[in-house]
From TrEMBL:
Homodimer. It comes from Melghirimyces algeriensis. The lineage of its organism: Bacteria, Bacillati, Bacillota, Bacilli, Bacillales. This is HTH-type transcriptional regulator MntR. PROSITE patterns: HTH_DTXR. Its main location: cytoplasm. Central regulator of manganese homeostasis. Keywords: Activator, Cytoplasm, DNA-binding, Manganese, Metal-binding, Repressor, Transcription, Transcription regulation. One of its GO terms (molecular function) is protein dimerization activity.
Length: 144
């Protein structure tokens, strides 16, 4: 299993390749707000672990293993963002909250959250009830 730091890199590399068709060291550094030398070191580690193939001055390509993990990590991030939206977390806080929790949840917990998100998406009346409950609580009213 990749470390949380490796996960951040794989997620962002996967996302960059999906968006642009490639991921350069400078793009990754900018996306993660780190120095290019840090990216090079991590990319070399990811190469050793067979998540990608890296050739100095030529770029990198995700292996099938790297693509699978990168997609799974991006899907996890997207799911957690949607979950936090559903439960009414302020939009300005969602990204930082996801970054804070995504590496600390088990895949079983992620699967349970996925079922909950799907439930609310398929049952908008229940989502309306949840939001009404939250609004009533925030206003100090008894929702019952």
């Amino acid at each position: 299993m990749p470390t949380p730091s490796m996960e951040d890199y794989l997620e962002n590399i996967y996302k960059l390749i999906e968006q642009k068709g490639y991921a350069r060291v400078s793009d990754i550094a900018e996306a993660l707000d780190v120095h290019p030398s840090s990216v090079t070191k991590m990319v070399q580690k990811l190469d050793q672990k067979k998540y990608l193939v890296y050739e100095k001055y030529r770029g990198l390509v995700l292996t099938p293993k790297g693509k699978k993990v990168g997609k799974r990590l991006l899907d996890r991030h997207t799911l957690l963002e949607e979950f936090l939206r559903i439960i009414g977390v302020d939009e300005e806080r969602i990204y930082n909250d996801v970054e804070g929790i995504e590496h600390h949840l088990s895949w079983d917990s992620i699967t349970s959250i996925e079922y909950l998100v799907e439930y609310f998406q398929n049952n908008p009346e229940r989502l309306a009830e949840l939001r009404a409950l939250k609004e009533a609580d925030e206003m100090g009213n008894d929702p019952t």
